[in-house]
């Protein structure tokens, strides 16, 4: 899923410009946040990569991941706080199932 939807442009805050996920608990295994369309550093450096070279952020207590949800971002020459924002489809993500014992707890801030 993406964290910004076109209908969010009608909100007073103008939508979900960015997301910060803070990991509060970690399971024994699994529970990663998966970004299927983001190129890993390894993919950027290699001329070709393995088909399963995907970006997975493991839930570690006290760690966080921050990402922009929209194509338009503050600091870009064409950005205006009043413009309609479009979701950045490359930042679609999903929480993967926990494997084994434990629970994954996160706090998100949009």
Description of the molecule:
This protein is mostly beta strands and 110 residues long. It contains one helix and eight strands. Mean pLDDT is 87; it is low at 47-51.
Mind sketching the topology for me?
Blueprint: E1 18-25, E2 29-30, E3 33-35, H1 41-45, E4 55-57, E5 64-68, E6 94-95, E7 98-99, E8 105-109
Antiparallel strand pairs: 1-5, 1-8, 2-7, 3-4, 3-6
Labels describing this entry:
mainly beta, 110 residues, 8 strands, elongated
Report the count of strand segments.
8
What is the gyration radius calculated from CA atoms?
16 Å
The helix fraction, in percent, is: under 10%
Largest sheet: 3 strands, antiparallel
Q: Give the overall average pLDDT.
A: 87
The DSSP helix count reads 1
Helices and strands, in order, run as: EEEHEEEEE
- Quaternary state reads single chain
**Strand arrangement across the biggest beta sheet:** 5-1-8
Q: Care to give the gist of this entry?
A:
The protein has 110 residues and is mainly beta. The chain contains one helix and eight strands; from the N terminus they run βββαβββββ.
């Amino acid at each position: 899923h993406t964290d910004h939807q076109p209908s969010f442009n009608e909100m007073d805050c103008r939508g979900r410009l960015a997301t910060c996920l803070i990991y509060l608990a970690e399971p024994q295994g699994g529970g990663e946040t998966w970004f299927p369309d983001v190129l890993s550093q390894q993919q950027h450096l290699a001329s070709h990569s393995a088909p399963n070279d995907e970006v997975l952020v493991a839930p570690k207590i006290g760690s966080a991941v921050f990402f922009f949800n929209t194509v338009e971002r503050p600091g870009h020459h064409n950005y205006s706080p009043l413009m309609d924002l479009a979701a950045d489809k490359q930042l679609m993500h999903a929480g993967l199932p926990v494997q084994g014992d434990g629970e994954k707890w996160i706090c998100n801030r949009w």
